[in-house]
Write a structure and sequence with these properties.
heterodimer, A: alpha+beta, about 35% strand, B: eight-stranded mixed β-sheet, 5 helices
Chain lengths: ~325, ~240
Amino acid sequence: MTKETLCYVKKPGMFTTIQDLGRFGFQSQGIPPAGVMDYYAFTIANMLTGNHLREAVLEITMTGPVLSFASQAVIAITGGDLQPELNGETVPMWKTFTVQEGDELSFKGPKQGARAYLAVSGGINGEEVLKSKSTYVKAKLGGFEGRALRKGDKLTFTVPCNSLSTGKGVHSELIPSYPSTQELRVLEGQEYTAFEKKAVQSFFTSAYTVTNESDRMGIRLSGSHVTQKNKADILSDAVTFGTIQVASDGQPMILMADRQTTGGYTRIANIITVDLPKAAQVLPGQKITFKKVSLEEAHSLFLKERKQFASLALALEEKL
Amino acid sequence: MHPIRMEAMGDGGLRVVFGSSISKKINQKIRAFTFLLEENKINGISEWVPSYTSVTIHYDPARLTFDALKKQVMQRCNEAKQIDIPPANVYEIPVCYGGEFGPDLKNVASHNQLEINEVIDLHTAGEYLIYMLGFTPGFPYLGGMNETLSTPRLTTPRSLVKAGSVGIAGNQTGVYSLDSPGGWNIIGRSPVKLFDVTKKHPVLLEAGHYIRFFSITDTMYETIKKQIKEGTYEVKMVKEDDV
């Protein structure tokens, strides 16, 4: 397997990082998993390009980068529609295509969704720290020097052994839409009963607005107050991807990929796994509503999606 | 005895609750339980996170059902009552108190009507149990500070506190593991890195063990810092029993 220069970063975009599934096994040491915000788009990008499902990709946030390619490569872009263009011509999403040396990939801007995922057949190289290439900027870990891409950076990739056919795509049913009001299904949180009954009611009946203070660490919401019966502080305790914390200001915050491993605020709910990719794609100003489901339902949705992935993987392999 | 409670944290987490307050006794139960999780691994578990009162287990519902996990956890909990866990370690952490490294040492002294030396004596006399790690990579939540050192947080947090800074906030003491903003009263700095990504095991401390601080001079600080850079400094560890 040879490493080759994939591309040069002509413009970095708003926040472009190298991510894989995440850095698991170190949360007891206070190390956040980081990893992709939207595992669904990530998984399909890797499947389309024939990669191992743990391979690193570029996570592109809202304003995309301008990349100038130095090698021929097969790539796929999934996730939020940031309107990718190759040499000024629209390229399809959720479908593989070939780039040639000298080609320039750019993005016109977010049309739907917040984050796009760019996978390259063979895999983008990144620094592996604690078993993961995911970038965790706060501790300068992994990916590209532990930071977001900058102008002039050179990305390399591993040239795949087999050449891939391009134009492989997924059925439109598998392509999510990212509406401006997103319903997220949740399970009761650890301090569910610490909230006023009325507060819980309004939590499930009102729509919350996504604020500008939203990033890979968390999505801050604004809307109907959720007040605690007593206090908002708890003894520091574990949190997870999708935990919804409420501090004393009564405003919910959804903890995302770069969350701290522990938190000190009341946890009203936890988003179910299959809805995390929806949360990853909300834009500031958009609305979120919450719906309570049972653990059984969450698990059956999770298993259904796993099966879907498995059959998609099979179908794509046959197309090779 | 407090019964053990289990609850779902999302669809990929199981929180095992051992109590509801900060106590050494609960911490020992948690240590015994996580010791058994490590010794006798359950398939389908990716990791677990101990806290003051609980252990949250992250699992893959496609490989392990919630009920099967609960059953296995209950078994470990029962076994945990019967085992003797190895004695805890005490990590000895050098700290250069006061001066530019400890801009709030005077404030902690005057707030508690103590002499500066008394603050250092009280702070180095304590043995601090590491209840959990969190907040930033390698940051220890410590218990056991002498209450006469208790000082409220700064009204305006600093935008940058250097890694290694030793601080007091209310009844807590701690060491910053990363450069970060912070509102603790900074009384000194340790040359020891609690989080060092260049090492094979980047995090120095482990929950369930202890820390003791000892006072060093500016010169010793520089010497140790140099030794750390060269990779010749080892944090001294003693067994709890020998203390």
